[in-house]
Amino acid sequence: PSPPQTSLPEAKPPSKFRQRVFPGVCDKPTFKQFVKRNWLDIATQLMCTLAGFLIYRFGEPLMTRRFPVFPDMYRTPFGIRYGKPWRKEYIGTLASAGVSFGLPAVVMAALGLWMVRSFQDTHAAIMGLGYALSTTTLFQALLKWIVGGLRPYFLDVCAPRMVQPNATRPAELWKTVDVCTGSRKEVREAQMSFPSGHSAAAFAGFGFLALYMNAKFGIFAAPRQRHRGPNVAENSDVDEEESPAQQQQSRRAPHWQLGLFVTPLLLAFIIAASKIRDGWHHPEDVIRGALIGSAFAFMAFRMVYQS
Prior knowledge:
307 residues, mainly alpha, two-stranded antiparallel sheet, 12 helices, 2 strands
């Protein structure tokens, strides 16, 4: 006689608590499929980020900086603009980069896990965030290297030696290498004011998050695309059919969604404005950095969400 067959125990279904906390996602590829589809994009983003970092860290300004050196120069408009004291940054470069990528990525991953429930959609969002930040990093680093500009504290770290003016040229323009006595590293850093990298990264990351919020919650969508909520006619105290005005009223976006949209932008503004408060950038550097970051956030969003 054949041996008795033993039946395998049935798999225990996950608890309701586990289903709520870890609901899972659909359309999840295998690891091999994921790498095959995305290795080039990931490698490109890493190379852009690394290239931007190396240029910012080691690149010497390409354009020669000349400025006047003469007694009482600190009382002139030039001295007032570039003679502010050096102060430590409120938000460092690594902290700014980490927050500008990490916080939007965590928020989009959480919404992807508990609301969207789609791996491909969440992957597109985080990949688009990488598009925006990595390209912004390289773009602004190239501008700092090629164009640049004097930071508000330039004269403080340059510590120029006073040159006796001659009779024919009382305010001759001098190169930084000729008159600066400060640390070469600090003098190089002080010539990279344009554009603000903090501002560009903040608006690239949080600007992308704001666009993502608008897409998922339909904050500025057309009325037919936005979730209407409960129908007014279903209420017990309303028996008549909605008028066109009532229908338009029921389709409007709630006020909390406006707060949801502007919160990422507020964080970007705080990071950007901190560079004015700590004296590392001029206001125009911050504004131009914000425009650069916002432009790349919009382009990256359109690339990953083309419909």
